[in-house]
Amino acid sequence: MPWWDLGSLSRLRIFGGGFQAVSGKRDDSSAITSEWNSPIDVPLIDNKNEERQNGIPEVQLGSHTVRSHGVAVARTHMHDWLILMLLVLLEIILYIIHPFYRFVGKDMMTDLKYPLKSNTVPVWAVPMYAVLLPIAVFLVVYYRRRDVYDLHHAILGLLFSVLVTGVITDSIKNAVGRPRPDFFWRCFPDGKELYDEWGNVVCHGVSSVIKEGHKSFPSGHTSWSFAGLGFLSLYLSGKIQAFDRRGHVAKLCIVFLPLLVASLVGISRVDDYWHHWQDVFAGGLLGLTVATFCYLQFFPPPYHEEGWGPYAYFRVLEESRSVAQAANMVGMHNLQITEAQVDNQEEESSHGFLGLHLADNQSALTSLDVESGRR
């Protein structure tokens, strides 16, 4: 039978990267193909037959963990982590340097005499809810999905969101130097006003308190809150597929919850008289904008049908599918070659046996001719 004739094959079964041929004519084809019917080191890919659970395909999930691929993923983004360290250093420098000391006249003090109060949300609490809380959510998702790409990119995107927002916020703070609503009591803790010949304030309070009093615009608490919790809100909206057009409004409650917390933090800054309302509005807009850009750098939009996973996951998935398809094509080609070799062996064996009989008959005829005197 010619090698391209596969009519003898009754069916072809595929086992996750290996093949098994079952012939309708003979049983030795499975034995011949047993050597190349071994599993291929390619993650299993199920195409259209793969069922989706909760709208999320389980293809490849669990095959890329921190232990198996964590170092490789981090090494791939080594330059991103180096830039992240540079942002940390830049943020420290911006916090240390003095802001611009804007002219503050006596007539301006009317709007700057609010009482000096402590923070309702302390500074140390901001990294707790804006950074550690989202990371805890990322770890919970990783524990369920075992996708190192999702965990790594979520943490990297969150840190970039918070640090880029912090650098922009402190840069604007130092450049603008807007006095806080409680600047009067920072400058004159005893209530005794003093001005120079140009009418500018001559503060005699604690230098660190006065320095902090010139950092009103924009609100750092608010920008950091919306950067971290805004990123978490986008992450959750993608994971629960809040915009799947099925009308589950309850999902929006989960999406809005982090934004509500960030908004309450911003309101507390106005209630504590540490910021004007314009400072809070600008800080929230800045943090949410940066969070959106950083999120879209690693994840599809939340309303996208593949918004539940990072770009890197789908890229690896496509590469694995291409490798699997190539392996399948090679297996099919090997199967055809094996069938052709078996058919050729059968044909050679059959012709050889027939040729032996023809040779015997020819010898018999020759002896008879000699005996009869014909030759």
From TrEMBL:
Cell compartments where the protein resides: Membrane
GO cellular component terms, A-Z: membrane
Entry keyword Zinc: no
Species: Trema orientale
Membrane topology recorded in Swiss-Prot or TrEMBL: Multi-pass membrane protein
Classification via SUPFAM superfamilies: Acid phosphatase/Vanadium-dependent haloperoxidase
Gene3D superfamilies, per database record: Phosphatidic acid phosphatase type 2/haloperoxidase
Family membership noted in the UniProt record: Belongs to the PA-phosphatase related phosphoesterase family.
Ranges where the Phosphatidic acid phosphatase type 2/haloperoxidase domain occurs: 155-295
Protein name: Lipid phosphate phosphatase
InterPro entries in UniProt: PAP-like (IPR043216), PAP2/HPO (IPR000326), PAP2/HPO_sf (IPR036938)
Major site of localization recorded for this protein: membrane
Example of a GO MF term: phosphatidate phosphatase activity
GO biological process, one term: phospholipid dephosphorylation
Keyword annotations: Hydrolase, Membrane, Transmembrane, Transmembrane helix
Residue spans crossing the bilayer: 81-101, 121-142, 154-172, 221-237, 249-268, 280-298
